[in-house]
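Exam prep: given the inputs below (a chain plus heme C), describe the expected output before reading on.
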Amino acid sequence: MNRTRAKLAAALLLAAPAVVLMAGAPRPLTDLRVCADPFDLPFSNDQEQGFENKIAHVVAQDLNARVVNYWWPSRRGVLRNSILGGFCDVMIQAPVGLDPVATTKPYYRSTYYFVYRANHGLQVRSLDDTILKHLKIGVNIIGYDYTNTPPAHALGARGIVGLVGFGNFLNPDPKADHPDDIIRAVASDSIDLAIVWGPLAGYWVKRQPVPLTMAALPDSDAVSGMPFAFSMAMGVRHRDKELKARLDSVIDRRRGEITAILQEYSVPMLELRPTTTGSSQRGGQAVAAPGAGSPRDSLLVSDSIYQGWKWFHVYCFRCHGEDAMHPVLPNAPDLRWVLSKDGKAYPRDSFEYTALNGRADKGMPAWKVLLDTAAVKELYQYVKARSDGWLKPGRPHRESDLKKSQ
Ligand code: HEC
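Solution:
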């Protein structure tokens, strides 16, 4: 062996253990970068007063790391703007099976609750109670169409409509609503009953000036097939397998402490099931898991709004303007203004009628030749979303698009 080769061999031998170490031993984690909502008690707030904040510190302490919070409200686009965007690495709470992220083993399970005044003679225990048809019912909503929280689905399946919606998942302003609004509405009699995700209910019911009753909904709904109970875990990006493994072992080691924190926040807990996967996804439809308080579902726009956007940019934009603004034809109105409350406040029926039948004498074509009523309804939904302002100009995303871009 010549000298060079000997040297090389020695160097390799020396280097080998180091290489093995680097590959085998986990890198020390100095920062636990947590995704958190700045204004969402009892889950989290920017004073770190929520249970997610407390749990984050337990986890960080166990891993010898420090908590670095990345604040982003749990609103439309939250996943893209926080964990999936790489701004933070851990969601302290994610329903098991939430597709866009990988979830750890669960550390608690809860369900939805009826909440009503204790002294008004009400005794609601079931969604099939006929009295529900006569009550003013509040639910947390994600979209303006009331369609994506489990209680709203379940009530809709029973023909109970006209719900009062709380929460403002579509408004980017984190303070646009208060997480306790729905419970305060019950306490102040502006609604008769609310159906609320357990942790949100448990915490805020205790903080009202009048006694409120909480009654649990079943694990799932026989009529609509909606799940009501969810097992909650931590969420990481799919590729962060090492971090997920660490969190799994922290959850094992610190289960007692974590449970104690949840109890301190009056989180009503069910027994954990061994496996509960896919519970946040039913029939291809996005179901926002647990309450608008912690909806970490990736709903961006619904399929129907997406379709509406497509129709609009095939047929309508050349007169009414791209993104339903800045009309191209001088006498074609800005359709956002046509639908807005501060504008013409055009009702849905009139919009659909005009779109289908047109106004030949005024230069508005009749679209029934090309479009059916379903397409016109989608068009209305799109323009309404633009008019309400939460849907920004440009190509909207659907949940399925988000998954593809991961
Ligand atoms: C060739 C141009 C043109 C196209 C394409 C067009 N519109 Fe119009 N639209 C008009 C004009 C012009 C008016 C105003 C008619 C009037 O003055 O009464 C109008 C009015 C309307 C109105 C009634 C607004 C109001 O204030 O009364 C609706 C709703 C509407 N359009 C929807 C649509 C939809 C939906 C599409 C696409 C499927 C579309 N339009 C495509 C020209 C167009």
